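--- STAGE predict ---
source: upstream dedup step, 1 unique chain passed
mode: sequence only
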Amino acid sequence: MLNALGIINVIENDQVLGEVSESRPFAAVPIDGRYRIIDFPLSNMVNAGIKSVGIFTHYKMGSLIAHLKNGREWNLDTKRRGLFFLSPDFSKYIFSPNKWDISHFTSRLGYIQSSTRKYVLISGCNMICNIDYHKVRDFHEERGADITIVCKRISPEERKKFEPCLLMDVNEDQQVHQFKAANEQSMDHEHLCLDMFFLSRDLLLEIIDECAKQNKWDLVQDGFIRNSRNLKVVAYPFTGYLAKINSISNYFNHHMDLLNLDVWRELFYQAGPILTKAKDSAPTRYTKDSSVHNSLVSNDCIIAGEIENSVIFRSIKADRGSVIKNSVILPKCTIEEGVELEYAILDKGVHITKGKTIKGSKEHPVVIRKNDQL
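--- STAGE serialize ---
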């Protein structure tokens, strides 16, 4: 078991996903057939044996709280520890869109101070991966590090899909000796910060206190980067599958990645299972007219049409004669007879009436808003 306190900071820019995040917080956006984005960082922590996880929330959190509830599906429904929703005191606090703003941490300081855990594991919410945090802890202790930052080595060609991002220069001993601005160019491979930080609880409290006293308000820039000359900061190299959900295009492409069986197996089972809220519903029913190729189809659907290279969420009805290709269909959508969909993202509850054709492109998939009828 990891002797660590977990913090998941879900304060993300909801606008990056446009229509998909209009009616829900970023962390509660449906993903991968039957999951929510929050399931990945939360499951990674639980799989490492972390028994106390705090969720830094802000506003529009109803659907996230309804999804997580008391944390029972993640075995966090305990009396002494468990899952905590840490909302700020809005009477004393002006919301900052910077998720690493020190004020987010000072307004929830009691959660950190009251813990008896030796370490703190801090994670953002928009990196989709399956990581073994036991290895991060071992790496941290073996190198006598003050702060360990999880990173991934990427090529200049891969960089675009992760921007905006924080890049690092790392030496042969995996020690971080320079941080790069997102607009700096490089011809060589670079180390991408995955917004996952491992350090002692005492050091985190010291950094927060020091930043607040000096009127410095960015935990990463002012707390970690500015102190990197005085502290030993190392980079743990993550080598597995990684997706950053920071645009509709990346959201769509990530779902297409899942149609690769090797990617699917790694993402959901490599270091431990990805857990989610259980919904006891019927298996999907396929009629004799249905045709499904290279697709991920969730339960409680009725499929009578043709589906190819698509991810289908729960409770979808696809009538006879409908054709769905290269698309992502979120829960409770209805696709009537003769409908053709290609490179489309349908949000929850969309109803496409008979004979309609909706086509986008791989670079610019069409997005249909929640509960729309066309």
